[in-house]
Amino acid sequence: MGNTGPESTVPRTASGVGGAGLSPAGVEAGEGHEAELERGVGEILIDEETLQARIVELGGEISAGYKGRDLLLVGVLKGAVFFMADLMRELTVACEIDFMAISSYGAATDSSGVVRILKDLDINVAGRDVLVVEDIIDSGLTLSYLMRNLKARKPASLEVVALLTKPDRREIEVPVRYVGFEIPNRFVIGYGLDFAERYRNLPYVAVLHADLVPNAT
Ligand code: IMP
Ligand code: MG
């Protein structure tokens, strides 16, 4: 039978997108979550092919850089999971993975730099070659805190790979060894990046649709 589903799947926004050419082929997705997913997309900034090609390159650079070393990838939950999963499959060196979850105090949209560890590492990083895997660096405040915290645990080396960076937004300099793409100062979703926890499952990076962008100051 058709997917008649519960009546509760009402789209959360009331933007009359109709006819804007956003709908994917096939499905009459008018009321469902597929429609919600598509409606979030303003414009595609980095398509899937470009993204994956750059990840192959990064994998090559990192494999060369860590040849014969004791690599531990530290993923920052949740956004980095998608990037990390694809990146590590491009590595030709042995590596382990672990995760941290952190949350900034204060306003939802702007990082305060005051960070709380929600989930710490399971692995002891002392003496290890640690590569922090981040989805995006915005102000840099979160990463800056994280780097200070990890450095205190005396790893053999500590570097960062970030899929995306918004240089215009940087408030504090954080040395980032490997960068996927520099992007303009716009709010992006997809490939791990969320808006209110949604849209992480888009296979590309897109600018959040203007109708959903919270009022900027
Ligand atoms: P920072 O401390 O300002 O560098 O905060 C970086 C964190 O903010 C990232 O790890 C993301 O979780 C989030 N973030 C920053 N910009 C975006 C964006 O454009 N889309 C989604 N999340 C973002
Ligand atoms: Mg994050």
What's the SSE blueprint?
Elements: H1 33-39, E1 41-46, H2 48-65, E2 71-77, H3 80-88, E3 95-104, E4 115-119, E5 129-137, H4 141-151, E6 157-165, E7 178-182, E8 188-189, E9 205-208
Parallel strand pairs: 2-3, 2-5, 5-6, 6-7
Antiparallel strand pairs: 1-9, 3-4, 8-9
The structure holds inosinic acid (IMP) and magnesium ion (MG).
List keywords for this structure.
6-stranded mixed β-sheet; disordered N terminus; binds inosinic acid; binds magnesium ion; alpha/beta; Rossmann fold; 3-stranded antiparallel β-sheet; 217 residues
Explain what you see.
This protein is of the alpha/beta class. 21% of the residues lie in helices and 26% in strands. β5, α4 and β6 form a beta-alpha-beta unit. It is globular. The N terminus is likely disordered. The structure holds inosinic acid and magnesium ion. Magnesium ion binds next to loops.
Short précis:
With 217 residues, the chain is α/β, with parallel strands linked by helices.
Structure annotation, total helices: 4
Instruction: Catalogue the unreliable spans.
Output: 1-21
β-strand number: 9
Associated small molecules: inosinic acid, magnesium ion
Distance, first to last CA: 48 Å
- Return the string of H and E elements: HEHEHEEEHEEEE
Class by helix and strand content? Answer: alpha/beta
CATH architecture of the domain at 49-186: 3-Layer(aba) Sandwich
Report helical residue fraction: 10-25%
The profile of the biggest β sheet is: 6 strands, mixed
CATH topology of the domain at 49-186: Rossmann fold
The radius of gyration computed from the alpha-carbon positions, rounded to a whole number of angstroms, is 19 Å
Strand order of the largest sheet: 4-3-2-5-6-7
Quick one: overall form?
globular
Specify the oligomeric state: single chain
What's the average pLDDT? Answer: 85
β content, as a range? 25-35%
CATH class of the domain at 49-186: Alpha Beta
